[in-house]
Fold these 3 entries.
Entry 1:
Amino acid sequence: MDQQNLFETPTTYRLLRLENLAALAICAGLFVAHLAEIRWWVFVLLFAYIDVIGYLPGAFAHRRAGGRRIHRVFYVLYNSMHSAVSALLVAALWAWLVRPEWALLAIPIHLCGDRALFGNFLKPFGVSFEPAAHPAFVHFRTSYANASVTREGGPDAA
């Protein structure tokens, strides 16, 4: 992907997930190494706020909509809470206002876990809130693959 081609191939998507898996492994290792020092109520709070604010409202709206589009605010909430920028801001504010602590690992564990384990990244407004293939993207992917096989290396060549 680059600034002119805003999409991922299956290979580049898997590589992004792999990067997040590496970050998740590092955070999980630190988590295990400092298990005795973690305040559990803080860990649970910091792990849960991301989905309580960012995912659950949109998930409920999506289910209630019965196939109709849901309001953009649900995408904004999701993307805001699942952004590394807002995560860093929350962690920095917590460390400054409360104290630095190992329970803050809940935030990158949640975000990296979503990306590495479930393949969930930020949500564009034009796709379903819950994962579903967009017909235009299915068409693009087929066209891209067919056009690429005539070039050396195919669609996922380095």
Note: The chain has one domain: 10-133.
Entry 2:
Amino acid sequence: MTATNRQVQRIQRDLTTLEQHPLNFIQNLALSVNDEGLQQITGVMLGPENSPYTGGYFRFAMSFPQEYPFKPPNIAFVTAICHPNIHSGTGETSDNRIFTSWAPKITISEVLESIHLLLSSPNYDTPIEAETMPDKSPQKAREWTLAFAQGP
């Protein structure tokens, strides 16, 4: 069995588990394969309650390197989001503990839970773009949520 086949089997297994035990903050998950044969998952993450992102619908894409599950997937928000640990231009995430302590046993569900937790608990000490949230105020994040993340 090739690494690509193992990768596909692992992704399919994680998605089956996710279907059997859905996360209430994830909608419209879809698996696709791009022209290079790389696997990608797209979906919508609902903003956490009691946060500047409450009521927001954030589209994301999760792509998998050839070395997955030995290397973590890449996550990028497609919907514009104002967050100290998410790049406002590319949507890529940073400062995520799950990626710095990555292990092959970590599932897609755990990655999604970690990203959702990052929305609830931003790390202002290591911002990706210091100018995005200079005063650590959630007001700008709320404004972006209302402007860019409304509707499914």
Note: The helical segments are 3-20, 97-100, 108-120, 138-148.
Entry 3:
Amino acid sequence: MSDIVLATLNAKFIHASLGLRYLYANLGELRARADIAEFTLDQRATDIAEKLLARKPRILGLGVYIWNVDETTRLVARPAQKLIEAPPPPLDDLELPYAYYTDADIAHRLIYVEASRGCPFKCEFCLSALDKTALPFDLDRFLTAMDELHKRGARHFKFVDRTFNLNVASSRRILQFFLDRLSDDLFLHFEVIPDRLPDGLKELLVQFPAGSLQLEVGVQTFNPEVQTLISRKQDNDRTADNLRWLREHSHAHIHADLIVGLPGEDMASFGAGFDRLYALRPHEIQVGMLKRLRGAPISRHIQSFDLRFTPQPPYTILSTDRILFGDMQRLNRFARYWDLIGNSGRFAATLPLLLGENPFARFLIFSDWLYAQTGQTHRLALPRLFELLQRALLEVFALDTDTVLDALACDCAVHGTKGCPGFLHERLRTVSGVVVSAIEPHDKAPQRQARHLRG
């Protein structure tokens, strides 16, 4: 039994808490009396309580985040005393936590790492707007820790740095470190500033093969007036040029973000931004609903733009003065269906037929129709999605039957016939011989990224 238990509720088992491991690494002489306990959101509060109480801790620390605060407060009572102030320690004083990823973590879970902490930008929807700047960890010490993880078998590294490409010299050293250890099973994830991609980074990015690198590119909005309102500095033309270059010259999987519900943004403005981003061909467009993070400066716009959020976590936007509740619900469903169809990588041949020359407008029409037909945004099995896509393309958009069936059959053939509905079986025999993969990913690439490569 341990006197101190550090626990949290992760969204999924595959997630390993970096925060708990930082705390554990920095307990000093108390580390020998401490232990880590991780659970998931789908576990019952009573079962978690039983497991924690069985350890008989004198001190129980819980990692609380926007995604688990409801479940955590069901687990524990209100504390008798609150921590009022905890200034962050200098990074050089912190013990790095990476030795406390277990062999099981390395084998089965995402390994979260950070080369820097904080962000110099002031985007008001983000808690990082409160940071004074981005602070780097000592790079030699960090890379030594990465080398130790790599020697232990770690191959999937997810960097949580807000601004990986802020310091180009450091970014180059990190990229070169992994290029020197390149293997078929290596996979890296970085979040990058969209308008900062100098030649020194480009020359290294092009060396990563397909299936080894994912870049999360936070575009958020292309509307200059909205960017000014939320204190976001972004060169939109340079952002577009960089996204275009990444798709044309690198094998990186591009995951680009847009936010619904920002102050000053209406349906037309968001739609124009979506169309502009889609034309740049990122592999995924993550359409995220604005969240009111406690303490984030976005709160200063609540009255002037009539921002309304759910009162419970994750405090999702419900309406603004520009997008009323009904339309916000439509956009919420749009985001979910886009993730199922546009982001999944399963419908590379069918998606262009669905979107035509007006991607946002046509997918919104499809989204409205799909919800009217099913009343669901979840639990839509793959065979049913194929059937619904066929119906929409024929009934709503009046496309040619052979064109639609050929596209759907191609998508089935590329990714395997499992999950393909019966109405496509005959058509599969006519297309399966001509479907050729553009890029064949290595067999260790994450499934979602691999589907985009095969499409």
Note: Residues 325-341 form the longest helix (17 residues).
